Amino acid sequence: MDCKFIPSICSYCGTGCGVLFEVIDGKIISTLPMKTHPVNEGKLCIKGWNLHEHVNSFLRLKQPLIKAFGRFIKADWDEAIQLAADRFREIIEKFGPDAVGILVSAKITNEENYLAQKFARAVIGTNNVDHCARL
Amino acid sequence: MKAKVKRWLEDGSVDLFLGYKMVLGHPLPHCFAKDKIEEVDDLIIGSSRYSLEKIATHISARKPDIKIGMLARDCNQRALNVLYIWNQLNPENVQTVNVNCCPSNLKEHGDCSYLEPETPGIYKQQVGMDNTHRTQDVEEYDQPERLSRWMYEFQKCIKCYGCRNICPVCFCRECSLEHKELIGTGALPPEVPIFHLVRAVHMAGRCIDCGLCEDACPVDIPLRLLYRKVNEIVVNVFDYETGSSADQSPFSILGDKVALEPKPLHIKRAETINSSIAPQEKN
């Protein structure tokens, strides 16, 4: 019997509540609020309380899918990224870079958000960057 | 304490020991085991409480015969008693190291019941229910005021289910609070006061007044006060002090002995019968 408690940060929004995963035999079985975390002081919202559910969900995507012939087909990352890059290039050549927009997220880190806007401005060449929290 | 835990793990009287350990500057629950016995040197009592007994129920649900040791404050001990009664843990498989209660404002090692919640702000003092109130303080308000103060508290609810999730004695697989025919879905605040009253009723004879629910409530609803009131009724009617022993609860309808008998009420009833008979005799 292997029982561990893993401290982490809630990935749902930008608040950054401290959570504690209760892991028994390699499976996350519950999420607890971290009592001493300065952000949430032992409290969580309903999304935070159920953080472990999407990890264990059988609907969770674990690898990229490519839509071909009207169906989603499992693919590897290289293949999926190559396809996305090719299609973006096609669109940019045909309609210009402002035909592309990048939506960033509170669920990724500050650094990843920075990379995403850099990718939009420097690689694609557009200022169309937006965020789900700016609704 | 550390020597005792080491001895227990070594001689196999417990397979696992639930305690606390400092991780990244936070006192977090930790599961100590024989194969990493050197970790026991880091065992601490911890300044914050987690429901170790709830974790123990999760472990024993997967491996019923496992022997679990745990640090137990007074509230943990009461919760364990309730869990034994409701067959969620087997008392033969649980060993505790009893420790002092959490430090409080009043006493460094005060009993948890003395823990003082934060003093509420001016607005809450005017329209809401003070978390520091005792049940008798609430009764000083007249009924309409009491209702409006409770309703102010309940309508703040964001339905996070934190009170239920953190509760050491909430273990039902199917929860009334999630039953869409009992409590409507899709709106916030949830159906008040039904949502809170359903939970309050279910806390009768279950709540061990640990205060974890109030700690976990993001909107500071005085839940502990509400459940104290419910349990005050349980004491008055059934003479049952929840969590004080592992004897069967008057609410249990399973097992060898069914004890739905209201105890002091019985005496009261006899008195009222006598007094109602008495005038007739006179006539």
Task: Give structural notes.
The complex is a heterodimer of chains A (135) and B (283). Chain A is α+β, with helices and mostly antiparallel strands and 135 residues long. Chain A has 3 domains: 3-56, ADC-like domains (N-terminal domain of TfIIb), CATH 2.20.25.90; 62-95, no CATH class; 96-135, no CATH class. Chain A has 4 helices and 7 strands, in the order βββααββαβαβ. Chain A has helices at residues 46-49, 51-56, 77-95, 110-124; strands spanning 3-9, 18-24, 27-33, 65-68, 71-74, 102-104, 129-131. In chain A, the strands form 3 sheets. A 3-stranded antiparallel sheet of chain A has the order 1-2-3. In chain A, strands 4-5 form a two-stranded antiparallel sheet. The longest helix of chain A has 19 residues, at 77-95. Chain A is flat, with a radius of gyration of 19 Å. The mean pLDDT of chain A is 91. Chain B is an alpha/beta fold. In chain B, strands 2-1-3-4 form a 4-stranded mixed sheet, sandwiched between helices. Mean pLDDT of chain B is 82; it is low at 265-270 and 272-283. Classes of the chains: A alpha+beta (135), B alpha/beta (283). The A-B interface holds A 1, 3-5, 7, 18, 20, 22, 24-25, 29-30, 32-37, 42-46, 48-49 and B 15-16, 23-24, 26-31, 33, 47-50, 55, 58-59, 62-63, 66, 158-162, 165-166, 215-218.
Please write out the topology:
The complex is a heterodimer of chains A (135) and B (283).
Chain A lengths: L2 E7 L8 E7 L2 E7 L12 H4 L1 H6 L8 E4 L2 E4 L2 H19 L6 E3 L5 H15 L4 E3 L4
Parallel strand pairs in A: 6-7
Antiparallel strand pairs in A: 1-2, 2-3, 4-5
Chain B lengths: L1 H10 L4 E8 L2 E8 L18 H11 L5 E5 L1 H12 L8 E5 L23 H6 L7 H4 L4 H12 L7 H5 L27 H9 L9 H5 L6 H16 L24 H20 L1
Parallel strand pairs in B: 1-3, 3-4
Antiparallel strand pairs in B: 1-2
